């Protein structure tokens, strides 16, 4: 009976937060539709940027049949995964965390903390840059092209592991961003730190095993964009080992748990406008 009640409460909580996030998305959608030309230009920009990235990959493979063991279909898939991760970050986490840092500086975080809901969830999903949805759509398109080129080697198991590791990769990046913005509770501005993070994310366009040891270590631990992109691409192309999959799951749980713990410590050091 107690277990059943716990499941009912958990399900109700999930539906509640889903409705809240849906309200946020609807509000942002109305704002975005007020500037339709800007939306069209954003789609064109995404098409241009992703097309350029694919062009660079094609140029590389005119001189070689593989890149450190990565074939052309696998590299196309990896490029699509990179823009899926980038799109997810740009749509939700980046605008929400930028507003969060502003609230901390101005001492106006109280308005969210006083709401009867989990502050971490609200602040992580409060703002959406739906105009960056073009990156997500183009990312799915490129992944679909890569899967078509890999059709002979794609299995149901590889599709499942791909979806799971893609979600884990996004959560790893989220955990790092949450940890970085939590520093704003102690430092007035951390914009330079975030700029360094965004610069490192560009390295995710290529497999992490292409880089030298020190950079590979950085892209798998300090800034996990390397594993966030490479592991899902390995999963769908049949290159991923069982140990890597388990390590990805454990690492994601530990990263999100540690970031949430650090976030709670940061909140204790927050001084709002009402203090």
Short description:
This protein has helices spanning 2-33, 36-60, 72-106, 110-113, 119-125, 133-149, 156-182, 191-201, 213-222, 225-236, 242-268.
> What order do the SSEs take from the amino end to the carboxyl end, as H and E?
HHHHHHHHHHH
Termini gap: 44 Å
Helical stretch tally: 11
- Structurally, the number of domains stands at 1
Basic shape: globular
Radius of gyration (CA) equals 20 Å
Largest sheet: none
Helix content: over 70%
Low-confidence stretches: none
Average per-residue pLDDT, rounded, comes to 81
β-sheet strand percentage: under 5%
According to DSSP, the number of beta strands is 0
Label the structural class: mainly alpha
Question: What would you note in describing this structure?
Answer:
The protein is 75% helix and 0% strand. The chain is an all-alpha fold. Helix 7 packs parallel to helix 11. The radius of gyration is 20 Å and the shape is globular.
List keywords for this structure.
mainly alpha; 75% helix; single chain; 275 residues
Would you spell out the secondary-structure blueprint of this structure?
Layout: H1 2-33, H2 36-60, H3 72-106, H4 110-113, H5 119-125, H6 133-149, H7 156-182, H8 191-201, H9 213-222, H10 225-236, H11 242-268
């Amino acid at each position: 009976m107690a277990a059943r009640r716990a499941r009912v409460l958990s399900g109700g909580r999930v539906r509640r937060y889903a409705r809240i996030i849906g309200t946020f998305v609807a509000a942002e959608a109305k704002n975005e539709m007020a500037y339709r030309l800007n939306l069209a230009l954003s789609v064109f920009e995404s098409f241009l940027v992703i097309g350029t990235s694919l062009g660079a990959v094609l140029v590389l493979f005119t001189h070689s049949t593989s890149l450190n063991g990565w074939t052309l279909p696998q590299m196309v898939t990896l490029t699509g995964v990179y823009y899926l991760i980038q799109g997810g970050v740009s749509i939700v986490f980046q605008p929400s965390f930028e507003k969060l840092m502003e609230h901390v500086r101005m001492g106006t975080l109280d308005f969210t903390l006083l709401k009867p809901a989990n502050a971490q969830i609200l602040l992580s999903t409060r703002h959406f840059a739906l105009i960056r949805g073009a990156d997500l759509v183009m990312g799915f398109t490129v992944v679909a092209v890569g899967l078509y080129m890999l059709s002979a080697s794609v299995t149901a198991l590889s599709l499942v592991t791909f979806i799971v590791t893609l979600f884990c990769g996004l959560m790893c990046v989220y955990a790092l961003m949450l940890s970085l913005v939590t520093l704003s509770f102690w430092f007035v501005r951390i914009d330079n730190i975030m700029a360094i993070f965004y610069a490192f994310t560009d390295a995710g366009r290529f497999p992490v095993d292409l880089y030298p040891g020190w950079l590979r270590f950085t892209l798998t631990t300090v800034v996990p964009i390397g594993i966030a992109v490479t592991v899902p691409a390995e999963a769908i192309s049949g290159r991923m080992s069982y140990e890597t999959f388990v390590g990805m799951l454990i690492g994601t749980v530990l990263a999100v748990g540690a970031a949430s713990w650090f976030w709670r410590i940061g909140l204790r050091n927050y001084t709002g406008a009402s203090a």
